[in-house]
Write a structure and sequence with these properties.
single chain; mainly alpha
Length: about 290
Amino acid sequence: MAKDVEVVEQHGEFRGKDYRDPPPAPLVDADELTKWSFYRAIIAEFVATLLFLYITVLTVIGYKRQADTGHGGDVCGGVGILGIAWAFGGMIFVLVYCTAGISGGHINPAVTFGLFLARKVSLVRAILYMVAQCLGAVCGCGLVKAFQRAYYERYEGGANMLADGYSKGTGLGAEIIGTFVLVYTVFSATDPKRKARDSHVPVLAPLPIGFAVFMVHLATIPITGTGINPARSFGAAVMYDKEKAWDDQWIFWVGPFVGAAIAAFYYQFILRAAAFKALGSFTSSSTL
């Protein structure tokens, strides 16, 4: 277990304060299956992802309707790309704030995957979170389709698709880098060492995460429509269910998972130097 020493001021004097990282989550924790808190967290992930997809996909379709000059719209009408990015980032901010104390506020299989690789959650929790997130995304898009049936098919269900003029490699790269930014921010904002040192960090954590989603959307909406969340891409593709939505679906799974894995490795083993700390602890104990 990694150990750091912080310097804190007490009564005008500086003293050392030990900090120990929490133990890694077990790979398989069967005891979780017997706890109501575990199922409550799964329900929270399902509902949060449902609400996320309902609001954001509805925003996308609404913008396309308002900007469709062929059907009485105005090319300068609607919220624009900036408004869509705000919808995604703002909803993540709200939903992470609401669910962080219950499920951790993942709302994204890529985030769950990155935290699993860092041993923040068990394999059982990670798998069931991802299932709940994907089901929530399908149901959220289903509500959009039910309420906006007149426009849903016309505006392609808000599904993620590789834009014309971009190669599959470019789309994959955009998803990898975009998800790296998001998951890197998640690790930074929820670092237990920072929370132990700065009591305000848990309250502020949803804000940088929401801003990361907002900024990534501004950059990559013109390329892929911005996935960085396999559940978001999967839910929209299932409900739209056209060949065009499925053609490049692999990009919206491979890209986010690769980006999340890189972010987990970078934060845990480079910035937090987990491997070197573990080696140092082992060397120290072996010389005693």
